[in-house]
Amino acid sequence: MYACICNGIKDSQVRDAAQRGAGTVGQVFRSLDCKPNCATCVQTIRNLLEEELLPENTLIAAE
Ligand code: FES
Q1: Best of 14, 38, 48 to mutate for ligand 1, by most ligand atoms within 8 A of CB?
Q2: Exposed, middle or buried by CB within 10 Å (0-12, 13-18, 19+), for 41?
Q3: What pTM did the predictor assign?
């Protein structure tokens, strides 16, 4: 799945960037030597970072 269509960034690349230390959307773009264009992907990338950076088995209370 593509996380950013403008730059052809796949979700796996975002996850890899997170594992290499990227913790923000800007850091993901910089680590992939890209720049945001339309910014439609910002929330998707944020969500991927949160998923990747949360410790395993962390439960988030929805209430
Ligand atoms: S979809 Fe990422 S900048 Fe446009």
Answers
A1: 38
A2: buried
A3: 0.85
